[in-house]
Design a protein that fits this description.
With about 425 residues, the chain is an alpha/beta fold. It has helices at about 60-75, 95-110, 125-135, 150-155, 195-210, 210-230, 235-255, 275-285, 290-305, 310-325, 335-350, 375-390, and strands at about 1-5, 5-10, 15, 25-30, 50-60, 80-85, 115-120, 140-145, 165, 170, 180-185, 355-360, 365-370. It has a 6-stranded parallel β-sheet, sandwiched between helices. The longest helix is centred in the middle third of the chain and has 22 residues, at about 235-255.
Length: about 425
């Protein structure tokens, strides 16, 4: 065997290729992102032939609320842009949606490395456009601007892209981090209360498995954050909002960075994501993603208590915080047979083992591989009894609004999702009529 620049050759009939690709991406807080004096949105990429061109995908409700600002921003900076407006929710998070965006992208045409895609919207839209970027010409750069809380603290900070397929959540996807993610909490002011709670569920997830101090902040100030929508309307609210957002983002990135491609399948950030993919898809559109995750966390908190990993006091504190954040702690989809099926699918996803994260107290985690259907049935019974007995701030389970939570709601059919590019012209949402 001879060695030549890392290429190993044996008897000239076999080659073993070893190569590395360095991955680097930035997640940056930047309030007032669309102010004319801000240039963050244009830092990735460059002009081609003396002209700045960008392909921009925007959530429909975000475009209704911020479309004029988006147009003014690109106009101010002399950007020739095409804008595709998408009504994005779990019911249209499918490969066909991604393919239609590709069609629009191909029609606009971009320089492969110098003209990144820009996506402005919630977690669903970022997942779809991330998949588009990873597939188009085998990979093009993109910039994410999450406009929902769950986008800021979860979908916007990692490397995953994906769409639902064959009734399964995110069954098709890639690992393709955005070159830059810009977090502007001012977008959250137009979210409805339920979608603030939806994002708080993912913050609570991180707190429960690795950050007790963050849990205490949610326990003490969670209702204030919910009321103020992280806008800092009071001094206490502003300080808490900044601290909570930075802590949640740091905690997530701290877990993701050493295991970005999920070579290690025991991931503490999978807490709340063992049963929730199946529960969410079966309940669709009744449960939002964070709500399904919270129901999963309530179940596994009860399981941890029954195993002696969590005290009764800790269990009830966790369930009380869930309620204070306006989140469900139980849902009728929690049938033991359904959960057993969900666990089987998760085992396949985790390469033959359950690798199920369970909390240890508040702020720590362990992994188990011996959960049985009988244990699930017993835990569900306790979970439902506790939900009935303990004080609750949540009401009946309304049907999810089918939108990303920004108001005003759109009365269009959810599947009339794609608008024609507005080519930077103001006042055109291109609703496809």
């Amino acid at each position: 065997m001879t060695e030549a620049t890392g290429l190993y050759v044996e008897q000239t009939v076999s080659w073993l290729v070893r190569t590395r690709k360095e991955v680097s991406y930035e997640v940056r807080f930047r309030d007032g992102l669309l102010r004319p004096d801000r240039t963050d949105l244009l830092e990735v990429g460059s002009d081609v032939g003396g002209k700045l061109r960008r392909f921009v995908v925007v959530d429909r409700n975000v475009d209704k609320l911020h479309g004029e600002k988006i147009h003014a921003y690109f106009e101010h900076h002399g950007v020739d842009y095409a804008k595709v407006v998408v009504q994005a929710d779990e019911t249209v998070k499918e490969f066909g949606t991604a393919a239609r965006i590709v069609e629009e992208l191909d029609g606009f045409g971009i320089a492969r490395r110098q003209e990144p895609l820009i996506v402005i919207g919630g977690g669903v839209l970022m997942d779809i456009v991330g998949l588009v970027a990873s597939l188009y010409r085998r990979g093009t750069p993109f910039v994410r601007v999450p406009t929902t809380l769950i986008g800021l603290v979860d979908a916007g900070v990692g490397a995953k892209t994906g769409v639902n397929f064959n009734g399964h959540k995110n069954r098709l996807g890639t690992y393709a981090p955005a070159d830059l993610t810009l977090l502007d909490r001012s977008f959250l002011c137009t979210l409805n209360r339920r979608h603030i709670g939806n994002g708080l569920a993912e913050i609570l997830k991180v707190a429960l498995i690795k950050d007790y101090a963050l849990f205490e902040l949610l326990e003490e100030h969670g209702r204030l954050l919910l009321d103020e929508k992280f806008q800092g309307l009071t001094p206490a609210g502003d300080e808490t909002a900044v601290t909570v957002l930075r802590a949640a983002t740091h905690d997530m990135l701290e877990e993701l960075q050493p295991n970005l491609w999920e070579a290690e399948l025991e991931r503490c950030v999978d807490y709340g994501h063992t049963f929730s993919p199946t529960v969410e898809m079966r309940a669709l559109p009744a449960l939002l993603h964070g709500e399904a995750v919270c129901v999963d966390m309530a179940l596994t908190t009860v399981m941890a208590h029954r195993r002696g990993l969590v005290s009764e006091e800790e269990r009830d504190r966790v369930l009380a915080v869930m309620s204070a954040l306006g989140l469900p702690r139980w849902h009728p989809t929690l049938d033991p047979e359904v959960l057993a099926h969900a666990l089987e699918d998760t085992v396949r996803h985790r390469d033959g083992q359950q690798r199920l994260p369970l909390p240890v107290g508040i702020g720590d985690v362990t992994f188990v591989n011996d959960v049985t259907e009988e244990e699930l049935a017993a835990a569900v019974a306790v979970q439902r009894e506790l939900d009935d007995r303990l004080p609750s701030a949540t009401g009946p389970f309304p049907s999810a609004d089918g939108h990303n939570g920004h108001t005003p709601a759109d009365s269009q059919d959810p599947r009339r999702w794609l608008a024609l590019p507005s080519a930077g012209r103001p006042g055109q949402s291109g609703d496809g009529r």
